[in-house]
Amino acid sequence: MTIEAKRTVTIPSQELPVSYTPDVVVVGGGPAGIAAALASSRNGARTLLVEQRGYLGGMATAALVPAFCPYTDGEKAVIRGIGLELLDRMKQEAGGDYRELNEDKIDWVPIDAEVLKRVYDEVVAESGTTLLFHTAVEQVLVEGETITGVVVNNKSGRSVIQAKLYIDATGDADLAALSGVPFHKGGVEGELQPGTMCYLVAGADRAKFQAFLEETGQSLQLEKTVVEAQERGDLPAGRKRISGIAWVTPYVAGFNFGHIFGVDGTKAEDLTRAAVEGRQLIARQMAFLHRYVPGFENAHLVHTGDQVGIRETRRIVGDYTLVVEDFLTMRTFEDDIARNSYFIDIHLAHAGSAMAIKHLPKGESHGVPYRCMLPVGKANLIVAGRAVSSDRPVQGSLRVMPNCFAMGQAAGTAAAMAASGGQGFREIEIKGLQERLTRQGAWLGVGERRQTAALAGSVIEFEEEC
């Protein structure tokens, strides 16, 4: 069956009920959306959090990304506030076997997806946020620069949610795109980072696996063993290592392994193909683990992601675009609402290409300005998470979950301030926002000023990794 994109049907107009009238509606229940909802509610706004699935967590729970990327710059925590609070709570509520392995970690902390789902339910309820699962936004109602409502669809039918302020935490800038905000997607030739179908295995033996690593001198990414299997045709071409293995307990491990290429996460057809290809690839990887990797001979596949993990889709056009020169010069802005120290990490767009990587020096970070969350042409909409206004290299760094927590906390706090003052997002007082974020645990750096001029016009050289 082919897609008949040119055929259209006019549907009858429909009078819809107004189902909710909160001060702030947050669309998307991933890290940015959870932090935004908590911050908004804790700062006094009546807040509704809308999520399409029956649980919160985004890529951590829906796609089973096995570990949180680093919270630190190698010396100190850069992501604090709500993000660090939620990390600590997941660790405390996980079992003894989990804590024995992971309690003291703050970087690359394995994710116990089922514990995390419950923790998110609890903290959202404690904050007073109203939660609405199994609900998708299908239309945004706009008058000039103001969003007047969003049309949602769920088992109860179609209805309209009317809020004062709207937070787009969909990861794909769905709300912004539906309201007409311009955006970029991918590289100059339309290339996108690949997706990954992550998964969880049980019945593994961590001690035996660790002995294998010591015996062969390999890292956790099994670079020698993966290449050996690729040369024998037991694994497909592509990245010559495992992106990540995270041990939840000594016998349960999560995998971020391999890529699905050519996936646009804003297209249902691409996501469908990626889900099918991802499960087929995992079957091949399980055979590899059983045959090649001591400690996994008896491992059993217990869960694959509900969807393929997506690294990159839309990037909005905002009031400021954060660019690679800002990253490299570790620039601080007058309107910083977060700091980022995660490296530029652009996964290969096809099996024959390489990763593009760029690290900041240990102990260093750059600022994330409030303006990059403000979409042009909209007064009461803010975007938090990987879809903020940046160039493609910076998106390859900002996109990870700890950063999304920090941006979400800032967006939710700003929304509560705007709701209280009857303002739009551009009218709030930035110094007041920064003081409130800092008072509530966020870290915005020490205010050191750096210049970008030294890099203007120079060629940026990235490290490559196969």
From TrEMBL:
UniProt entry keywords in alphabetical sequence? 4Fe-4S, Iron, Iron-sulfur, Metal-binding, Oxidoreductase
Q: Which Pfam families does this chain map to? A: FAD_oxidored
MF (Gene Ontology): 4 iron, 4 sulfur cluster binding; metal ion binding; oxidoreductase activity
Please indicate which superkingdom the organism of origin belongs to.
Bacteria
- InterPro entries the record matches: FAD/NAD-bd_sf, HdrA-like
Protein name, as recorded? FAD-dependent oxidoreductase
Task: Provide the species name.
Answer: Paenibacillus aurantius
